[in-house]
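Posting this for the archive.
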Amino acid sequence: MNDRNMKDLLAIRDRYVDLLFSGCFRENVQGVMTDTADKLVNGLVPGPEPDTCTWPDIDFTDMSRTGAWQASQHYHRLESMLVNGGKERLAADAAFREKALGALRYWLIHDYRNPNWWHNDIGMPSHIGDIGLLLREYLTPEETEKTIGLVSRGSIKTRSDVTRWGGANLIWGIYNSIRHALLSEDAELLRACEARIELEMAYTNEGIQPDGSFYQHGPRWYSGGYGASYTFDLSQLVWLFSGTSYAFPRERIDVFLQHVLDGQRRMMIHGYFDYAGVGREISRRGTLNRVEMIYGIRMLATIEDLPRRDELLAFVHDIDRGAVEDETDPYPATVWFPRISFLSQRKNGSYFGIKCHANDQYDAEICNSEGELCYNMSYGTHYCLMRRGNEYYDLNPIYDWAHVPGTTARIETDAELLAHRNWWCLPLPNDHVGGLVSGDRGIVFEKPEHDGISLMTAFFVFDGNLVSLGAGIRDEKENGKPLTTTLDQCLPVSPRIGKHRASNGGFTYETLDPETEIVAKVEKREGSWKRNSFEEAYTHETGKVFLAYIPVKPGKDSYAYAVSPRGKKAGAKVLSNTPALQAIELADGTVMAVFHEAGDLIYKGKTLLHGEAGTCVIL
């Protein structure tokens, strides 16, 4: 490697250490560790070995596989102590510095392991690497060597399998390899990391998809989960490497920005992500407000010569508006994402995200005891309705998971939902699904089939309104459990309730046929984060939830309803709602139709349209 590469490596290391001291990383931006440096350093006690320190309340025998692993608190706290204490205190306060070094020595000696490989090969190396870089100039050669040894467990230099990891896991592995390179001043390794990252800034089996969505754990939508972490990490690398010999080429930056601007930006509003796109992380606190991803987007927007910077700045502006209802929108759009069978619309202040299911895709995930109650998100037709963004924020502990918005399902208890949880890695069959966008109007349709329940569904979005039609509802089991179609379940904000029309927050829900009635109510509930994430500690949570649904009554196998900005009407008329054809007419005469079977749309004695099976039309 030439002198330029080594000079740039040292410059990148300085930038990275400054970034660490700024407190940008995940545990700090999400507020997971908010204790002051004084509280943390005062909590340290001498360890069993000379010149070591630890926190006495940490249970190092804990073997939890999730982020609740107790032993990991040791390095989380140490990193937070260093960041919150700051660079100047570390240099000037010898007692503070010696306690920090003692805490690192304690981990270097004990080297705790977890049964979940992620902690050992990704989580631990990342934090120990950062701590090593923060303390680098104060370490002895032996301590530096031991620190590099732990970090190297997740490095491409010492293990070839890291390069075969997928999606966000691969990015984390390369990031640990970069830490390895910076600690050991290995310019050749840093160049190899840059080259490997380039390969991931492309369309891959796990990672960015051609439509801008993001896969992880197979063909599974994870734009707001692993994809959010990917954006956080890649944004920092683009920023760190910018202006150096390690900078990424333009064509790779373009693909990455497609993921951010054509994907993630279309899946959120005012800084809050569509709950369907976060995977099993829906069972974690604070998930829907992706603070770490937003931090990365802000970093990207500071790079003056970055392509599409004006769009990034508009994205940041929308995030900064926070949870407010605002009918102005810097980027209204209706988008169909075929790789995840998902349609989103942002128009007139409304966000609609409609998730359907296809044969070649997975949906909700149960993994590491998280997302255990999410069965009704496994077969599609669920949607997310937002105007403020925080409509579903941290409702997980008190959520009724039998009532996922947009789905037709049985009313079931937690225990009954848990009986379904082995389905998670097997895609349910469905080859009748599709979508169409024309201008700012869109259609998505599906024939969901699950556990004996089937129906034909169609969703039409236009001008910030949603019309949902269901027909041919069947329950082959007929086991006595009531069927319902859920309109919404979210935080209550000034609800008003009637039989055919209800309002809550920024939306009004109304039936479109006289036989359909809405059951709407505000319920006070009790629950725990442990309900949907088994390795969480038990907590007692209380709160109120707005719930609106349509009961499926004997002899009535269809429903028709609209969701509109509060105080407004959709202005749509149902032309057909049968298992063969579902169609509506808008106030301006536009016809939107789904042909589940080949046939004609006949209205007032005239044939308006002909369609083939499995097609949709906007005319």
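Residues 373 and 418 are 6 Å apart (CA to CA). The radius of gyration is 26 Å.
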